[in-house]
Amino acid sequence: MNDVLRRARAMLRDVTPLRSDCGLCCGHRCCASAEAEATGMLLFPGEAAYYAERMGYTLREAKQGTLLMCEGSCSREERPLACRIFPLLPVVREDGVKVAVDFRARSVCPLARQGRSAMSDEFIHAVREAGRVLCEDEVQRSFLLMLTHAQDEWKALRRQFGGERHV
Ligand code: SF4
Ligand code: SF4
User: Fold this and answer.
1) Residue 40 backbone class (left: φ over 0; alpha: ψ -120 to 50; beta: rest)
2) For the chain, which terminal residue's Cβ has fewer other Cβ atoms within 10 angstroms, N or C?
3) What backbone phi and psi angles, to 5 degrees, belong to 165?
4) What's the average model confidence in pLDDT over 31-50?
5) Extents of the domains making up the chain
6) pLDDT value, residue 53
7) Minimal-distance CA residue to ligand 1 atom 6
8) Distances (CA, A) of 133 to 64, 88, 95, 115, 121
9) Cα 83 to middle of ligand 2, angstroms
C-alpha cells in the first residue's frame, strides 16, 4: 500500500458520518446489505494486496477494479477506504476536490438519502482532505475521476428519467 493510500485511509480511521454510531439507527445496513456480501465494495488501487491474505475476505475482479466481499463485520483498522468514506465520495472537479453523496449509497443508507447536511462536518472535511491526498498520486486521481464520471452519468440519467433533484 503506497503512502498516499495509507494517509487517506488514516484520515478516515476514526471519523464517522455521525459522532455517534449511525449503524444503531439502521441496523448497520451498509455492512449487512447484499452490496457488501454479494456485490462487494470497490477497492482503491493498491488495496487488494492488503486483503488477499486476510481471513474473511474474498476478492473479485470487475470492470471498474477489484471488489472486496466480506462477512458483514470488521474492525475499523481493516475497513477498506470505500467503507471509510461511505456514504460520501470525493469528486474531482476543475476547481478541486469536492464531496458528494455517493449515488451507490442511496438505496442502502438513510443518511445518504437525507444528504450531506445529515452528516458531521468533521466527516465531510475528512473525506474532502482524503480526496485531496489521493489526487497527489496519478493512479488514485484517475480512479477518483472514473468514479466522478460514473456519478455524473448516473445523475444525468436520474434527471432525465427519474426526476432526481440536482445535487
Ligand atoms: S447504512 Fe448509512 S447510516 Fe447505516 S451504518 Fe451505513 S453509513 Fe451509517
Ligand atoms: S468491509 Fe467491513 S465496513 Fe466494509 S461492508 Fe464489509 S464489514 Fe462493512
Assistant:
1) left
2) C
3) -70, 155
4) 82
5) 3-9+26-160
6) 86
7) 30
8) 21, 16, 15, 24, 18
9) 6
